Automatic annotation (TrEMBL):
Any Pfam family hit: MPAB_Lcp_cat
InterPro entries in UniProt: Lcp-like (IPR037473), MPAB/Lcp_cat_dom (IPR018713)
Protein name, entry field: ER-bound oxygenase mpaB/mpaB'/Rubber oxygenase catalytic domain-containing protein
Gene Ontology molecular function: oxidoreductase activity
ER-bound oxygenase mpaB/mpaB'/Rubber oxygenase catalytic domain location: 157-347
Length: 398
């Protein structure tokens, strides 16, 4: 069956126009110096129906021919030690590990280091940005959420989902994490396989998947947008919270996520080099995404209520206060229209905490050395991750 050619179908819709003329989209253009237009739309739109076929073949050849534990042990052995020359492995395994073990010519280790240092140096602001801007803001794009809904992510619960996201993010953003056979490299390969496994499951079990409108499950264009969330949107959030960063750190952040995307099997021409390019790429993708629907609201409220369900804090008043602070940050970081669509609760004095944080960050940046901030940020982020893993009994990655 011949597939319909994708059009920028929401380019005249109020949610798209308002985002890019009055909301965070306008701020991203100002922040990045982007020149947005639809002239390159046809170069990107085919990726709405493009997926990581190599990852899918690995899942078919390994996971669908053996029991799950045996398959997982085999993949872990390859990730940590490479593929033995004398073993008769499926061609898909040879091809995937040949790709991930080939260091691209463009890779710059100094930039990877700078990107990792920015992620650590921003300390808990990094985690606030990921949660209250990148993650919850992504729920406003209704089609992007469909794989989460059909794989019943809501039933798994926000605590578990947040723990897994944090586990991935922390482990790919440490020093030397992405070297072949190191821990960040392992997380990238496992994430790639999880995506393929989920995609094949959706294709097999969810007969109502609307490919024409939603694209292929976990398609390459949606993957591009997700990783722009980890780079461009993350950087913009740090900026909003009063963090400063050097040109080297900014370039490093995009370089870091470009390489992670490469390991995940995202086509290289979808991985932006800088904030200008990322904003221009993001503009095109948002034109095929409708605004938040009822599923988006459920996901957003599940994330907001995670603070109430999470037993890391002992007392109820502490959990309620943490939820309040996250709501304040969400209103501060996201557009008002987006918050209303996601039905983020109205709270009193919602600007006090994020504005105070912004002021404190500007002072802290001047008073404490960069190296001290990196060390403290790494320590504090690892503490949060350890707390989450202790209550979720580890994550799917292990």
């Amino acid at each position: 069956m011949e597939r319909t050619i994708v059009q920028p179908r929401f380019k005249d819709a109020p949610h798209f126009k308002d985002f890019w003329t009055k909301g965070n989209g306008k701020k991203l253009i100002e922040f990045s110096g982007a020149e947005v237009s639809f002239k390159n739309f046809d170069k990107f739109s085919p990726y709405f129906y493009h997926v990581d076929e190599l990852g899918d073949m690995v899942v078919k050849d390994i996971y669908l021919t053996k029991n799950f534990r045996e398959a997982s042990r085999e993949i872990e052995e390859y990730i940590r030690n490479g593929i033995p020359d004398n073993e008769k492995n499926p061609e898909s395994i040879k091809q995937m590990f040949s790709q991930t073990e080939t260091i691209p010519e463009w890779l710059n280790n100094d930039l990877l280091k700078s990107g990792a240092e920015l992620c650590m140096r921003a300390n808990l602001d990094s985690l606030i940005s990921l949660r209250d801007y990148c993650l919850i803001g992504g729920y406003d794009f209704a089609y992007l959420n469909k794989p989460l809904i059909v794989t019943e992510a809501l039933k798994k619960g926000a605590v578990k989902r947040l723990s897994e996201t944090l586990d991935f993010w922390v482990n790919v953003t440490r020093y030397n994490a992405l070297e072949i056979h190191h821990k960040g490299y392992e997380f990238a390969i496992k994430t790639r396989i999880i995506h393929s496994y989920a995609r094949l499951s959706i294709r097999k079990h969810y007969k109502d998947w609307d490919t024409e409108n939603w694209g292929e499950p976990i398609n390459s264009w949606d993957m591009m947008a997700t990783y722009i969330g980890f780079s461009l949107v993350f950087l913009h959030s740090l900026h909003k919270l009063g963090n400063t960063f050097s040109v080297q750190e900014e370039q490093g952040l995009f370089h870091l996520w470009k390489y992670i995307g490469y390991l995940l099997g995202i086509p290289e021409n979808l991985l932006p080099e800088n904030k200008k390019q990322a904003t221009e790429f993001f503009y095109l993708w948002t034109s095929v995404q409708p605004p938040a629907d009822k599923d988006s609201v459920l996901l957003a409220h599940s994330l907001l209520n995670e603070s109430l369900e999470n037993p890391i804090l002992k007392y109820k008043f502490q959990r309620r206060n943490l939820r309040y602070l996250h709501i304040c940050c969400t209103w501060f970081l996201l557009d008002e229209d987006v918050c209303k669509r996601l039905q983020i609760p109205e709270v009193s004095n919602k600007k006090v905490f994020p504005v105070s944080k912004r002021i404190i960050n500007k002072i802290y940046d001047k008073m404490v050395s960069r190296n001290q901030r990196i060390r403290k940020g790494n320590k504090d982020q690892m503490k949060v991750l350890t707390d989450y893993l202790s209550i979720t009994k580890n994550s799917n990655f292990h």
